[in-house]
Each structure stands twice: as C-alpha cells, then as structure tokens.
Amino acid sequence: MRWQTCSSSLPGRAICRVRKSEIVNAGFPSSEGSGVGSPNRKSEIVNRESSGWRLVIVGPDEDGHLAEVRRAVREAGLDGQIEFPGEAWGDARWQFYRDADLFVLPTFSENFGLTIAEALACGVPVITTRGTPWQELETRQCGWWIETGVEPLVAALKQAMSQPSSELHAMGERGRTLVTERYSWEPIGRQMVEVYRWLLGSGQKPECVQLKS
C-alpha cells in the first residue's frame, strides 16, 4: 500500500472476532523486497502454517512481480487461501486494515514503515522485520519484531496464529494506543514545535532529535 494524506483523527478500529472455524485474514505487502525471498517461499509459509487463515496481498503489481507470485500460488495449490485485490485507496484501504486479524510486513529495509502505523491505528497487531525501526512492537506488546528470513517469519506466524482472538484484539488495542500517544498528528506537531524552538535557540534539544557523535 502507498501513503496518502489522511484526516487528523485515527481510522476506525478492527472488530474483535470470535475465532471458531471461520477464515480470518492476514494482510501482506505485494512488494518483491519483502525480506522473505522468492514467491515460492511466501507460498511455503502459507502452506505450512495457515490452517484456517486467508492471506490477502494488497498493493500494486511492481515490475510484473505479481504474475510470478500468482504462478507460485497455483503451483502450491493455494488459490483458495490467497487473494490479490490489487491497490487500495481511501476508505477501501482502511477497510482492508479493519478486516484483518494480523498485518504482516517482512522487509529488508524501511526508514519508518507507514503501513505499520496505519495497521496499528486500526487496532491490528503487526509482524515485521528488524529492517524497520519498530522495536516498540515488542516493548508495547502489540506485535512481533523479528529477524529477516523465512524461518523467523514462520515462527512468528505460528505464534500469532495460535493466539485467541481476544489476545490479538488486546494487542491491537495496545498498538492503537501507541499510535495515538506517539504517531498521531498532535504528538508529532508538538515535537515539530520543540525542534523549531531548539533550532532557534529558545529551548532544549528534544528527545526526538538524535545526533551522531
């Protein structure tokens, strides 16, 4: 998913579901640089650990990568478990987040990872790799911050999928609180004011500014 400007208020949160035998959703990025490896590795992850789950891969087709992924899905016999709705914008994008029980962003590198904040804002727990600066997923108990690679991702997915719906919902609520406190417009605005005051010599260096020695 790509970023677009949103309102100052947080989007609606995900609905707490009671897990029985119904299908639940895991969101996944469509980018080739996902930190998982080839499409066959993605389908292997789904095949090994996805009983009762549906994988929804949302985003644009980058450089024809989607055809390769679809072929791997067919070869693995997973057509009924994986969906490719394409790009999503506006309300449709937020609905994908709200419909998800889990958001997964395995990546080699992100300077922030806005989709992580968006998922948390919707009350959805997140699995992502240490190529993102999201250690708070662990410290705030709202997701999994893992090493890059198939096996760490499989282990995290297995752990996440074994959680009751009530625990995933609680993790999502903690994530929403994290975004409200640190990454919504109001706290970011306060930080910007503190930075400008510091630059103008009328305030102390704010905690959000980190200088390399």
CATH class of the largest domain: Alpha Beta
The fourth-level CATH homologous superfamily of the largest domain is Glycogen Phosphorylase B
Structural class: alpha/beta
The dominant shape is elongated
Q: Give the count of structural domains.
A: 2
Strands across the major sheet, in which order? 3-2-1-4-5-6
User: Would you report the number of β strands?
Assistant: 6
- Examine the coordinates and then state which fold CATH places here, giving the name of the CATH topology of the largest domain: Rossmann fold
If classified by CATH, what would the architecture of the largest domain be?
Answer: 3-Layer(aba) Sandwich
Helices, strands, pairings?
Layout: E1 24-29, H1 39-49, E2 53-58, H2 65-75, E3 82-86, H3 90-99, E4 102-105, H4 114-121, E5 126-129, H5 136-139, E6 143-146, H6 150-161, H7 165-182, H8 185-199
Parallel strand pairs: 1-2, 1-4, 2-3, 4-5, 5-6
Helix pairs in contact: 1-2, 1-6, 4-7
